[in-house]
Amino acid sequence: MSRFVKIPVYVLEAKISPSAKLLWIELARVSSPKRPTVWPNPEIFAEKMRLSVRSIRRLVGELVKAGLLVHHGYIQKRQKTYDLVWANKAPAKADKPIQSLTPELFDEWNKRFPCLDGLSGRPKLIHVVEQAVKEAEQTKTKDPRGYIETSLKNTSRFWSESYHSEKYDLVRRFGA
User: Domain-by-domain residue ranges, the chain?
Assistant: First the structure.
């Protein structure tokens, strides 16, 4: 058992209770990155941390839910064993919105926003989507797809209105 424990920053910043962080630290004292397997006996840790056995079980569940403890197996088919997560295995950032957009969605948008065709100085649909994705990432929008849809609607409305006003001006100037 080590006298010192290195605590990764992601454990300190994890959205878990202080007691769960303390349990992670106690488990880290009896494991290492090379040997991450632990079997948190609730009775022993309850006494060590001055908590109830039920609280230790709840904290183990909290660590599992947070991804800081992974169920590994059983000892003698009774005691659960876990692997303590030493490396940051936080969920990867969601794929960029442009990658999660399907071809079917682009087909739908092409039908809904036909003026975004790249002709007569109008932008192409893909360029509007790419710009909206960049803006959504910069503003850290929670709903990037909704942001993209709004951007497409606004751009389409602008180009439709400008097309109709040009057509109206031509008709007014030269007659129909």
Answer: 9-84, 97-174
Separation of alpha carbons 147 and 133, rounded Å: 8
Residue 85, pLDDT above cutoff 80: yes
3-state secondary structure the chain: CCCCCCCCHHHHCCCCCHHHHHHHHHHHHCCCCCCCEECCCHHHHHHHHCCCHHHHHHHHHHHHHHCCEEEEEEECCCEEEEEECCCCCCCCCCCCHHHHCCHHHHHHHHHHCCCCECCCCCCEHHHHHHHHHHHHHHHCCCCHHHHHHHHHHHHHHHHHHHHHHHHHHHHHHHCC
pLDDT band at 92, cuts 50/70/90?
very low
Structural fold of domain 9-84: Arc Repressor Mutant, subunit A (1.10.10)
Residue 90, pLDDT score:
45
Separation CA 128–CA 132 (nearest Å): 6
- At 55 the pLDDT is 92
Rounded Cα gap, residues 173 and 176, in angstroms:
9
62 Cβ contact partners less than 8 Å away, ≥ 6 residues apart? 16, 17, 20
